[in-house]
Specification:
The protein is α/β, with parallel strands linked by helices. Helices cover about 20% and strands about 20% of the residues.
Length: about 400
């Protein structure tokens, strides 16, 4: 059989996770590594709204040890390549493409429809062909799988990931459902365009503090929020305890309703900033689960019930620590490459030396479970917030 249909390793997804693993495997000299993607390299980033930027800053600090937070290999830096600190989605996708070109990675344009273990590896059915890899790295991300949180009538709303340009949305008054990063970003973008924005949130993520940036708003978002509250031409209104469960079109627009039956009327299509499903849900039967997190072998990031199936990307969880930023999940690229090199009989220690030294092969998982700043944080600015039910 053609080796492109029977690769040693098939990587599903050409985002930062899939590409980073592919480069690490290449460093070990592993041949026949194929990346399959239904869209193309960096497609999730290319689909970001035009105005959105990475909130993790890029800085070309690699030579002194701390690698650019958004790098996917130890020897590249988006800051150095793009000359910017907060790349847009399109810019970051161009960095990913440059890395893929530099390492001559091999791609197949196809959508994976099913994956099942067979005698000598896996059978992977795509919309075009059947692939028979020995090993699989699942790196299909989250962005392609928006989560509407089961809101009744969600089809009448617009998920934030489907917005290509905030300035193209018609209307003046907006309701944004969800107060985490995407919701606050949407609200800021619209307020800066002079709109009246109502941010409906269950909790108050903008007021929470955590030493783990996965649990709280990023410093860049807080900076933008402060700027927006004092300088935006539009207005921003925060509501807590707004657990929206239904959206119904009305003659004047849309009625949003919370669990208590409290309505909110929006003349424009509501924006859902309600997050994403993990692509792992599509092959959930191949993993063992603890709550909503797949349990992966700590030595390899491999499924504990499907040998040979690895996971790389933002849904990675070890010891309750979430690896949902690029700088976090890249810490395991070398771990996956080492495991595959060992299995396929390739040298890994020397080829991955730099990966280990620069934090792309972190073995000690204790590092991410006990992180607390040694000094107390200063008080943060709090926006004015009203209780959803009281405001109605
Ligand atoms: C709004 C937003 C802002 C963010 N900002 C930051 C940030 O500032 N810093 C940071 O570190 N992280 C940030 N993240 C998170 C970061 O974008 C993701 O963690 C990262 O994209 C995950 O990389 P990935 O390679 O796993 O997934 P992706 O980049 O989504 O790549 C997955 C690829 O898999 C492909 N694919 C999916 N399903 C299939 C299939 N069935 N068959 C074939 N191909 C498939 C897709 O086409 C896609 O190209 C942000 C995320 C969002 C949504």
């Amino acid at each position: 059989m053609n080796s492109s249909l029977k690769p040693n390793v098939l990587i599903i997804g050409a985002g930062p996770a899939g590409l980073g693993c592919a480069v690490a495997l290449r460093e070990c000299g592993i041949p026949d590594v194929l990346i399959v993607d239904k869209q193309g390299v960096g497609a999730s980033f290319e689909a970001w709204p035009q105005q959105m930027k990475l909130l993790t800053p890029s800085f070309h600090s690699n030579a002194f040890g701390p690698v650019d937070l958004n790098s996917i290999t130890p020897e590249t830096s988006p800051a150095d390549y793009l000359h910017t600190q907060h790349p847009s989605g399109a810019q970051y996708a161009s960095y990913l493409k440059a890395v893929a070109l530099r390492h001559e990675l091999r791609f197949l344009h196809a959508e994976v429809r099913s994956l099942r273990p067979v005698a000598e590896g896996f059978e992977v059915r795509t919309n075009h062909s059947v692939l028979l890899p020995k090993y699989v790295i699942w790196a299909a991300g989250e962005f392609s799988y928006p989560d509407d949180k089961g809101i009744l009538g969600a089809e009448h709303a617009l998920h934030s990931s489907r917005v290509s340009d905030w300035s193209l949305l018609p209307g003046q008054k907006f309701a944004v459902v969800g107060g985490a990063e995407s919701g606050v970003d949407a609200a800021i973008q619209l307020a800066e365009l002079g709109k009246e924005v109502h941010l409906l949130s269950r909790g108050e993520p903008w007021g929470e503090h955590s030493a783990d940036p996965s649990q709280t708003l990023a410093p860049r978002t807080l900076d933008r929020l402060r700027q927006c509250l004092t300088g935006a031409s539009g207005s921003l209104h925060f509501y807590k305890n707004a657990d929206i469960v239904s959206i119904t079109p009305t003659p004047g627009g849309y009625e949003l309703m919370d669990t208590e039956g409290t309505p909110f009327l929006s003349p424009t299509q509501p924006i859902l900033a309600t997050g994403f499903h993990s692509s792992m849900d599509r092959i959930s039967h191949l993993f063992s689960w603890r709550g909503r997190s797949a349990i992966l072998d700590e030595e390899t990031d491999e499924s504990i019930i499907t040998p040979g199936l690895y996971y790389s990307g933002p849904s990675l969880v070890h010891r309750e620590a979430m690896f949902c930023f690029i700088y976090k999940f890249r810490a395991r690229f070398g771990i996956i490459a080492r495991s595959l090199a060992q299995r396929l009989g390739y040298e890994w220690e020397k080829p991955l030396k730099l990966w280990r030294e620069r934090g792309f092969m972190v073995e000690d998982l204790a590092c991410c479970t006990d992180c607390k700043c040694a000094i107390e944080p200063v008080e943060s600015m709090q926006p004015e917030v009203v209780d959803y039910a009281a405001a109605a």
